[in-house]
Amino acid sequence: MDAVEELKEKTRDLRKGLLATTVLVDASVATCSEWLSAVIDYMGPQLNLISGKFLDHQLRLAFVTYGLSSTRPSPILCKRYFSRIETLKRDSLEIPELVGLGQVSNEESERDGMAMLDAFAAALEMFDLLDTTPNPNQTHILRKILHVAAYPPDNTRHPAWNVKPDLDHLSWSNLPQELRKRDIHYSSILIRPLPQLEKFHAAVCPPHETCPPWFERPRTSRQF
Predict the structure, then answer these.
(1) Which terminus of the chain is more exposed, N or C, with fewer CB under 10 A?
(2) Which residue, 27, 26, 10, is CA-closest to 18?
(3) Which domains does the chain have, with CATH numbers?
(4) pTM for the complete prediction?
């Protein structure tokens, strides 16, 4: 069995009642320093609630870490396909550099902005891959992006590192539509106030579709 067939087989197995969540994280030192708290205080309660509502579903996490557009060989420092939460949690907490965390200085992040649009393109491609293998046993797939960020996006108008040509014209103006088209839910954990992401969140999640957090939030500067 070649690599493509192995990936398709893995995808086929995953799709039997699946909670597919992609964690989108910027690679700044600031985000890395808050990562443990973000996982324990914010992501954990979200994932626990989702898993509790869908007990017959498997929870699988994908991971995308992004740096600067000038980062080579790619601004996407880590891209892991949907797998068991234990592996990703261990790697990101014990050896954060394995998933690209903390690889960009705060000074560079502040000065240049982050390759966030390319990161969203990478996340969309993984969700699309999940949907390329038909499965007659599929019952339900819940798709979600959990976004952890400390710095704003750069001024890139379209992604430059996507694989699928149909994402060449992805932009901030049509990204909310692309998420809704795929039925992808979006949540953000902002290490510091980011007005552009707050505006984006409002475009993706209209006020009548949002709800306050269902858990007690620590008294920090983070926004959920």
Answers:
(1) N
(2) 10
(3) 17-134+141-209 (3.40.50.410)
(4) 0.82
